[in-house]
Specification:
InterPro entries: Phenazine_PhzF-like. This is PhzF family phenazine biosynthesis protein. It contains 6 helices and 18 strands. With about 270 residues, it is an alpha+beta fold. The chain has an 18-stranded mixed beta sheet that branches. Strand 2, helix 1 and strand 3 form a beta-alpha-beta unit. The longest helix has 13 residues. The radius of gyration is 18 Å and the shape is globular. The protein starts with a strand and ends in a 7-residue tail after the last strand. The relative contact order is 0.19. The mean pLDDT is about 95.
Length: about 270
Amino acid sequence: MRYFHVDAFAQTPFAGNPAGVCPLEAPLPAALMQQIAAENHLAETAFFVPRPGAPAEFDLRWFTPAVEIDLCGHATLASAHVLFTHLGFAGPQVTFHSQSGPLRVTREADGRLTLDFPSRPPQELPVHPTGLTDALGATPLRVLAARDLLAVFSSEAEVHALKPDFARIAALEYVGVIATAPGSDGIDFVSRFFAPRVGVPEDPVTGSAHSILIPFWAEKLSKTELRARQISPRSGDLWCRLRGDRVDISGYAVTYSAGELLVGLDS
């Protein structure tokens, strides 16, 4: 099968978040997709299949090296990039059908790709989850939760300095932990994302986390247009917008490699 390695939320290779992308002609068994994702050993591998009679619609699934995930931003961006750049898709927009409902990706005039994702506003937790401070090695100002925990710090330096204990983070009953703080120099907020529970110790740039971050920071800063940066070692920039119960998450993508996977149902 054809295979692409794409750096999402990046304009040059070796930055952003690498994703594997497998365009399929027909669905594969989930067990085989999980094996491929484990072999790729990237944060996510995406698999998409065209919907019959709908040339701009595809069924999309994402797998970490350990589990199937319900929502992934960077591998969705990477999948759209493959369609627009390598597979001859000429339309301005593609729709992926997923566990989280329809996800539209629009190609902008400057080459950026915009994800239309669900907004997942986090709810304040009056008591910090047991073990969170030890897991992060620091005490956040506030803790909120949606699919992931959201730990809010006062400064970018604090988020950058975190040295998480991944075993303790994996013991928390959430997909992942987002650490965030106000940004500077035109960046509204920064973040890091840790998800060892699903096989991703630190994710370089996490689109799905911004489904939580955008409504939080939009309310806190009283603005709907936001610039974000994930300050992992690879780093990545995101252009964000809150639209009611949806969020727009925009970024660039670049192909690192393209080839074939020599596996199939008889492997």
